[in-house]
Amino acid sequence: MAPIFRFAPSPNGALHLGHAYSALMNARLAAAAGGRLLLRIEDLDRVRCKPEYESAIRNDLAWLGLVFAGAPRRQSEHGDDYARALEALRARGLAYPCFCSRGRVAAVASGRDPDGAPLYLGTCRSLAPRDVAERLAAGEPAAWRLDSARARAVASAALTWREFGEGETEARCVADPVVWGDFVLRGRDAAASYHLAVVVDDALQEISDVVRGRDLFASTSAHRLLQALLGLPAPRYRHHRLVLDANGDKMSKSAASTPLGAQRAQGASAEDLRVALGFAPGPSRFAVRLS
Ligand code: GLU
């Protein structure tokens, strides 16, 4: 079967050069492999994601000359798929409800996960089943978390993935899901966490090649664990370099890195961006730093 790639932006802000790099990298690899490139809109965060950001993202991608196969998959329309996956884990005793508020999670945390969030080591895991049932029946808000120790025991001993970086050489990476603790599968007010949704979507969209920034490298350990638990195939992975801003930090929506739209308004063409990012030959009109 021809390879299937995906670009999966979250519509919680404008795209910047880092996104352009990722999208162009996906497009180049898909074309070289005779594969397809799909668009997925990761809009599960109902507070931060906005339809106007999605329109702006799609305009930017069209301006960059990127063409995606078929209609985009919008995560907010597929809550049932994530609920089924959560139920499969729950039925096997691999997920438990967590009633801790954000403040309580921070108070009981032991260190931080790779995203810098408090590492939750399972206070609610040992609640009495009757207490849990009563609190759920009373409608107390709960997140659902993975019982990570049990999950690691159930999944095969050595979880690995095939990593190609930006080259052709295959490395075998060993997953280290311990660093994520009992991570969230479904938040109090979202249909699924990023980790659960991305794994379900990659499988349902039959993604063979996940191409994304190095900032998501550690996430792949959580994803491989969920794939093993849910009996889903493991794609090939490429974690590419990140585009750095003027301070040498990775670009981010919150750090007000110049959005593509602003670059366009300042007169940059899509070709200028492709040249600057290394996807087309020619003298570059501006300098880009990669990690
Ligand atoms: N939605 C994520 C982001 O915008 C990308 C997730 C992924 O590629 O797995 O950073």
Task: Spell out the blueprint of helices and strands.
Blueprint: E1 4-7, H1 17-32, E2 36-41, H2 51-63, E3 73-74, H3 79-91, E4 95-98, H4 102-108, H5 129-137, E5 143-146, H6 148-154, E6 160-163, E7 171-174, E8 184-186, H7 194-204, E9 209-213, H8 219-230, E10 236-240, E11 243-244, H9 260-265, H10 270-276, E12 289-290
The chain binds glutamic acid.
Structure description:
With 291 residues, the protein is an alpha/beta fold. It has a single domain, classed as HUPs (Rossmann fold, 3-Layer(aba) Sandwich). The protein contains 10 helices and 12 strands. The strands form 5 sheets. The chain has a 3-stranded parallel beta sheet. Strand 1, helix 1 and strand 2 form a beta-alpha-beta unit.
Question: Can you tag this structure with a few keywords?
Answer:
globular, binds glutamic acid, alpha/beta, three-stranded antiparallel beta sheet, three-stranded parallel beta sheet, 291 residues
Task: Please summarize what this structure is.
With 291 residues, the protein is α/β, with parallel strands linked by helices. The chain is 35% helix and 15% strand.
